[in-house]
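Weekly puzzle thread! Below is a chain. First person to post its structure in token form gets bragging rights.
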Amino acid sequence: MLKHKDIPVILSEQVQTTLTNLEPLTRKVFLSLTPPSPMDNRADVDQVRQMLERSYDFVLVPLALMRKIPSICRGAHWQVTATLAESGNGWELIDLEPGDMTEQQFGLAIDIGTTTVVVYLVDLCNGTVLRHAADYNDQIILGEDILNRIRHAAEEGGLARLQNAVLDTLNRLIRVLCPLPMETKKITAVAVGANTTMIHLLLGLDPASICRDPYTPTVNNPGLIPAGEIGLDVNPLAPVYCLPSIGSYLGGDVIGGILVSGMHKQPDVSLFVDIGTNGEIVMGNEDWLVACAGAAGPALEGGVTSFGMRAEPGAVDHVSIDPLTGQVVYTTVANMPARGICGSGLVDTLAELFLNGIIDRNAHFQKGRETYVVVPGKETASGEDIVVTQIDINNFIATKGAVNAATDLLMENVGCAWQEMKHFYAAGAFGQYLPIESAITIGLYPDLPRSSIVRLGNSSGEAARQVLLSRTKRLEAEEIAAKVTYFELNANPSFMEKFSGSKFLPHTDLARYPSVKRRLQTLV
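Winning reply:
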């Protein structure tokens, strides 16, 4: 089990919204019922339903609860707490507890990433996150990326294995948050942010059509599903709400990012980027939103470099080079002996190599060099030099180039000039941990006023928290999904042209990076 600091779980304080007028997926209502008598001989279930329907128009009582209601009411001397869940046509009674339990309302906000899974335990009474837990997605052993998992799902028993893997991960994290089995049953609502494929695998839906022309998922908005039907270890009748997707490659995690950023309400043009195992880019304002997505490769998770690793203890996470002595100064996660380089360390390294003239604007080593020693072997855990090679740089620059090319293509399609970009929202680990100045230096972030660059942290998790707590936010998320126009990059012949031209540092058009241009001029 990883410590939470090793996985991007932060709900950034910059974007956490204090929600007023909470409308959570489930509500608790205290009922003081009338004991049966010759003057009032209503059926027990009918009395519970009728009292609830004084405030809630229509309440469905499932058969499973009908069997329990008489004994619960009598054992509690007719003082009980009902838990109601939203349903498509009204409300459903999902639990009945003895006594007044209205102050104990709990839900889960879940972010299911291709690589990592984060679960937040939320107090439904006030919206606060009580605890959180994170771990790697157990599906990784069945496929590192989405396409490999879709292929695995097509094998005999593959879909069941993938669903069980993510459920094992989730239920393990739920038990970390609520160690006692009785506690998990007190969780009465769940909201999930995830990409389209992850939602399909969670629900046990065949994802095959996601990667086949014309790229149509089984479902984009699954609605409310009882947790017991999925296999989550919470109240089996707890409603599970998945943030809606737009299509195969633009999922609820991106809708959540837009929701949390608020870019869909602003008059100025903003750019939202989330780069992980997959990359998603959204541009727009209150009038329009356009988006594109594709496989980014695990460039920022250490997956494309010789000594790349995730942000675990021993990962080099920050690097600087003394311009006078050439001495490398670095730090590692948890101050452990260096074992490799994570995304933030790699971004720092490339920026420092560029600013010190060790690599040129083509991201090529100068003077015949092929490698650069970041940490000498005498300081590493293995005794081996930790280096960055030209191949490593080429692989990383391919990801950076894809981000630049996709952004340029979106701007071209909507007739928007880069000068119109006023805000930049960076989500996930891409936003939370990358050093801003270094990311701008190599062209991964746009060169905007630093106050216009907002780190959203785990915006998928924060969006899940918001829709868990607010019906208004759920409707807002669905309105966003209906508003976004998706562009298919693979079908656009100019993408590869822009991609080839986007591999320069920081960009083909240096005028778009005035602060970097000034820094380079001072180094001449």
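Puzzle host: Confirmed. Bonus trivia for everyone else. The first strand starts at residue 26 and ends at 32.
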